[in-house]
């Protein structure tokens, strides 16, 4: 059996010491683990920095982040900058997220996601897409911008800006919002959607198209489709 020489043993010992130094300040706050094909660290006074490359992974509490590259920095490494094939799984909140880039603040519980961002809210069976997503866990608020698409069963929403209040199950849309529900279409300056009841409140310059159900015996079908009121609420069907 071959034995590693003094140089190899020393390199492994140095790597182990670096890992312990990296984890020490984090262990006091929460369980924190990391891995990667390679790692470089800087732990000098006033500067804490670690770079994981190749199959990079960070586990923090109920959240797991994987990416091509993860950079950890700030006091006690509270910040993580992730790049390339980013995938986040948050088992506690039921969130599955994929994007090109992610910035995460462990202390404030804020995530900023850029580039082909797709967030699946598994608990509410909803998918959120946009060019930029900011998730504020402490406020239970998700902000979505640029080419917003929100999909939920029979409900499809589009806009340029959206606020999603997770606990209230309320979705606020602005920037040419458009919503379709079971074939019915709604447009207005602003919309509020209750994703639990699928009730829709429309405000300002409202337009709508209602798909009429097929007439049954004894029913008289109207001659044309209805329109949404100028301002009001479209209830669940």
List the helices and strands and how they pair.
Elements lengths: L5 H22 L4 E4 L2 E5 L6 E12 L2 E11 L5 E12 L4 E11 L4 E12 L4 E11 L4 E12 L2 E11 L4 E5 L3 E4 L2 E4 L2 E5 L5 E4 L3 E3 L22 E3 L3
Antiparallel strand pairs: 1-3, 2-3, 3-4, 4-5, 5-6, 6-7, 7-8, 8-9, 9-10, 10-11, 10-12, 11-14, 12-13, 13-16, 14-15, 15-17
- How far apart the termini lie comes to 74 Å
Number of strands: 17
CATH H-level homologous superfamily name of the largest domain: Lipopolysaccharide (LPS) transport protein A like domain
List unreliable stretches of 5+ residues. Answer: 1-29, 218-231
Mean pLDDT level: 79
For this structure, the CATH topology of the largest domain is lipopolysaccharide transport protein A fold
- Helix content percent band: under 10%
Write down the secondary-structure element order. Answer: HEEEEEEEEEEEEEEEEE
Structural summary, described in words:
This protein is mainly beta. Helices cover 9% and strands 54% of the residues. The chain has two domains: 8-123, Sandwich (lipopolysaccharide transport protein A fold); 151-237, no CATH class. It has one helix at 6-27; strands spanning 32-35, 38-42, 49-60, 63-73, 79-90, 95-105, 110-121, 126-136, 141-152, 155-165, 170-174, 178-181, 184-187, 190-194, 200-203, 207-209, 232-234. The chain is elongated, with a radius of gyration of 24 Å.
Labels describing this entry:
single chain; 237 residues; mainly beta; 17-stranded antiparallel β-sheet; 1 helix; 17 strands; elongated; disordered N terminus
